[in-house]
Amino acid sequence: MAIPARARPDACPGVFATHEAADGFLARVRLPGGRVSAAQLGVLAACAEDLGDGSVHLTSRANVQFRGLSPDTGELAGRLAAAGLLPAPAHERVRNYLASPLSGLAGGLLDVRPLVRELDTAVCARPELAGLPGRFLFAFDDGRGDMAAEEPDLCWQAVDGDAGILLRAGEPGERVPVTGAVDALVREALRFLDIRGTAWRMRELPGFSGGKAFPAGKALPAGPFSRDDGGQGLCVVPLFGELSAAQLRTLAEAAPEVVVTPWRSVVVPGYDPASGPALLALSTDRGVSACIGLPGCAKSRADVRADARRTTSAVPAHFSGCERRCGKPRGTADVLAADGGYLIDGAFVPVEGLADFFAATAQKGQR
């Protein structure tokens, strides 16, 4: 595979490099491993209210986005830095680290959370790694296969409690002890910088076949789950991955820390059934996701979120306003806006027929 020639630079948004949309400017805040403290949730809520559209938007890389910002993000950056959410401004767009969201809580071969902290420290200590593309993705998989399925550029996947396999663009490589996992990922990231040319992802480099064909990652279902220590946790799945400032504060009151997942959901590690109603009310997921659509994005052909609400089906589907298919999870039906309706995996369905189409699809799946 030849390295693609690109005339434009990588424009992956961050806090300092924002993206202009029809509803204002967009800023993305990296959350290593998806972890965010209750105090930081409070800061995110205040920023959303004071500076943005009143909500935070979860991303497919376990980060959060603000929308509706002004062009000057100086105040946003200052608030985030004070909360510990911008520890290395020069590296803020490259701190893309996934980790198995239930690691250390339920299942898995070992707890990979300390490895995320170690990798973040190591990456931010290397000035040259600030030159990684904003799309470059690191991951730690605790052995259950959930993060390897998210197509990271570099992944350390546990095979037992002491070691794992290094995956490059999904292709399995050498066995690496857990004590050497971070060094191996940093070494490979530096190597990528040396040979990348204009490539944004490792799979674009010559010699990579596209990697192992991993099945799509299985999103965590909404509701309580059993922890290995006998307690309970909770997975909250908000509709379209959007949480209002008030909902963020509800999460902050429930636990000292929560974990944002790459499936636009939030894991509350400690779940007290006494606070259940408020938390359970945050989950309104109906099996669908959607890009922002009209009026937030001028490139969109439709108000996809309004149309997605026409179905109450649990059939996994992603509504896209244009061919970019922003935020589309793997393994979901492709619902692309077209004149008067949608192309669903290539077949045209009029807007007024969406509910019936998904109801019939769900019924077939239950047989």
Automatic annotation (TrEMBL):
It comes from the Bacteria. InterPro entries: NIR_SIR_4Fe-4S, NiRdtase/SiRdtase_haem-b_fer, Nit/Sulf_reduc_fer-like_dom_sf, NO2/SO3_Rdtase_4Fe4S_sf. Coiled coil: none annotated. Residues 22-72 form the Nitrite/Sulfite reductase ferredoxin-like domain. This is Precorrin-3B synthase. GO terms for molecular function: 4 iron, 4 sulfur cluster binding; metal ion binding; oxidoreductase activity. Keywords: 4Fe-4S, Heme, Iron, Iron-sulfur, Metal-binding, Oxidoreductase. PANTHER family: BLR3264 PROTEIN, FERREDOXIN--NITRITE REDUCTASE, CHLOROPLASTIC. The keyword Repeat does not apply.
